[in-house]
Specification:
638 residues; alpha/beta; 5-stranded mixed beta sheet; 17 helices; 18 strands; 58% helix; rod-shaped
Length: 638
């Protein structure tokens, strides 16, 4: 039973061809076996009956023809009669005995036949015919018994004939069954092959449809069940193709719509970038001139009352400069000009510097600013990490009205989490993602510029992405916020010693600086500033004018300071390149611009010139000029 169950389980997992062959052959084989067995049995029984009938008929016939020969004692005649009967009925032997059992006549192997057990024997008594037996005196005179029994006749048929017949019949039956099975198998194989091929073809079409080849069709006539299946698959494929055509049309329309939206957004972005760049440039120009005039005025006027006014003007100018610098940071990040220089550095020193930087600001707002000591070494860019913390701390102080700000760190495996925690107003959950976008300020509806432009967190997000660090925000409305950044741990043994650079020396008295700018106010402001420094300055509004002044002085400038945007579609890079070619060597140069467009910043950076943004801090400009002049003269001497 288990074997049959296992066989059916195996058949259920086999191919359709195997199952069809089994279904076709098994009933046919059983039917053919039964029919062959039945007819073979009937044939063998008929042969057995025929053998018996033949022996009985031969015995009766001998009983009828032998009385007279037996009475007359004609042995020759009896032998002839036995011989004839043996040949006629295919007997193995035949013999005649008298009434006393003595052998009278015989034919065949009677001695062997008497002892063989594989013969069928038939005996019959030989008596006088009834009509002749009445003449007792005649037969009595010839020695016949009075009761009419003359003797006995015995015939035998060998069973070997039946055995040979049976064997031949079984062989013929087996050959017939094999032929029938072969024919059935061939027919079942052809039918199953055809059906399996059709199903395989339909399966391949379905597979191609599954692989997005919706042009596939089943090439079968729509007759029969498989044909109906193929027709259904073709109908489904046509429906899919039609549906796909509709989807492609919708996708094309949606793509065109999105492309139009994207193009509109890009145009808006470029327009915004151009607007900010132009606005930044145009606003920085007078602010730059104002800072120069303030610096010159502060150096010349030493009266106490005037100094107070000048300091107020200078503070307002510095506030405007901070706003412009935030725009500049965004532009630099968008332009990709900020490079990352990761090193191993101690965190505690940075925290101490930040505490000194923001301590007075927090105290002015009556807030507690605490820095939890953290003796950990980090591996990142310290300048960019400091810039991130500066923005986070400034943002926390700006939006905290009561309580304080905590700066802490915690080691988490191979990372260190730096957190800035405040007790401020908190950020609603639906706005926590938006605060990292540009110009988003949740608690400044009046756009108070003392609270910044809403660029601090946008700069934090971009710097963290540039560094590959993760920024996390957790906040509850009216309960404060916690901004965190995960920074990799560093190795204290790889921290490079800090070398404190001394203050730059004075600009050499014989130095000559060339300034190229198209704004008259900036030229006058720079002239006043350089006059206070005691440095020779040549100002020009174009390259041609600069060459004329230098030719009249017969001197080569030590440093070229050029504005980036100049009249007649020229820029500072072209001015510097032309003057360097004129004098045959690389004169140190500085490019100054109020443009914050990313492509402008990238082009200047690729040209390899130091870049200063308007408004300039006079101290920064003087330090850079001193450094470039000293470096050039040291290289010339070496």
């Amino acid at each position: 039973m288990n074997y049959i169950r296992a066989l059916f389980n195996r058949l259920s997992r086999s191919s359709i061809r195997s199952r069809m062959l089994v279904i076709a052959l098994l009933p046919a084989m059983l039917t053919e076996f039964g029919m062959v067995a039945y007819f073979t049995s009937q044939t063998l029984d008929a042969a057995e009956d025929a053998m018996h009938a033949r022996a009985a008929h031969a015995a009766r016939h001998l009983g009828d023809i032998l009385p007279y020969a037996l009475v007359s004692g004609d042995t020759a005649q009896m032998d002839a009669l036995l011989k004839t009967e043996t040949d006629t009925n295919q007997l193995s032997y035949a013999r005649v005995t008298d009434a006393g059992g003595q052998l009278v006549a015989s034919t065949g192997d009677t001695l062997h036949a008497a002892v063989l057990a594989d013969h069928y024997r038939q005996r019959i008594e030989i008596r006088l015919p009834a009509a002749d037996a009445r003449n007792d005196r005649l037969f009595a005179t010839r020695g016949a018994p009075v009761d009419g029994l003359l003797g006995r006749a015995e015939v035998g048929v060998s069973r070997d004939q039946i055995s040979i017949f049976k064997r031949e019949t079984l062989i013929h039956a087996a050959l017939l069954m094999l032929a029938a099975l072969l024919l059935t198998g061939v027919l079942a194989w052809r039918l199953s092959t055809r059906l399996a091929g059709q199903l395989r073809h339909v399966g391949q079409v379905v597979g191609r449809l599954a692989c997005h080849d919706i042009t596939a069709r089943a090439q079968l006539p729509p007759t029969g069940e498989v044909g109906a299946l193929a027709a259904g698959v073709n109908t489904m494929a046509e429906a899919l193709q039609a549906h796909r055509g509709e989807l492609e049309q919708r996708i094309r329309e949606a793509t065109a719509h999105l492309a139009a939206k994207k193009d509109m957004a890009e145009r808006a972005h470029h327009a915004r970038s151009r607007f900010f760049a132009a606005a930044s440039h145009d606003l920085r120009q007078p602010l730059h001139a104002l800072s120069l005039f303030v610096a010159a005025l502060k150096a010349r006027n030493q009266q106490t009352e005037a100094q107070t006014l000048i300091e107020n003007i200078e503070a307002s100018t510095a506030a405007l400069e901070l706003l412009f610098n935030a725009l500049l940071d965004i532009s630099r990040l968008d332009a990709g000009t900020i490079e990352v220089h990761p090193v191993h550095f101690p965190l505690q020193k940075m925290l101490c510097d930040l505490e000194q930087q923001f301590g007075a600001v927090a105290a002015e707002r009556r807030l507690r600013l605490r820095f939890r000591p953290c003796d950990i070494t980090l591996y990142s860019d310290p300048l960019l990490i400091e810039r991130i913390l500066v923005n986070l701390i400034a943002n926390a102080i700006r939006y905290t009205d009561d309580g304080g700000v905590l700066v802490a760190c915690r080691r988490r495996g191979r990372m260190v989490r730096l957190s800035v925690i405040d007790t401020g107003r908190g950020i609603p959950p639906d706005q926590q993602e938006n605060v990292f976008h540009e110009f988003v300020q949740l608690h400044n509806p009046a756009r108070d510029r003392s609270k910044g432009l809403g660029l601090g967190l946008a700069i934090v997000s971009r710097l963290a992405r540039l560094l590959g660090h993760r920024v996390d925000l957790r906040s509850r409305l009216d309960h404060g916020s916690m901004f965190s950044i995960d920074v990799p741990c560093g190795d204290a043994r790889l921290v490079e010693p800090t070398i404190t650079a001394g203050a730059p020396g004075p600009i050499p008295a014989d130095a000559l600086v060339l300034l190229v700018d198209d704004e008259r106010a900036i030229l006058r402001g720079m002239a006043e500033l350089f006059d206070n420094w005691g440095v020779d300055l040549v100002t020009a509004r174009s390259t041609d004018e600069a060459e004329q002044w230098l030719d009249s002085l017969a001197r080569v400038p030590d440093v070229i300071v050029s504005d980036y945007r100049l009249p007649d579609d020229t820029d500072g890079i072209e001015v510097i390149t032309r003057l360097r070619q004129k004098y045959g060597h690389d004169i140190p140069a500085i490019v100054v611009t109020g443009d914050t467009a990313p492509d402008t910043i990238l082009r200047i950076s690729q040209a390899g010139f130091p870049l200063l943004h308007k408004p300039l801090r006079p101290a920064k400009l003087r330090a850079l000029l001193t450094h470039l002049i000293q470096q050039a003269r040291a290289a010339a001497v070496g």
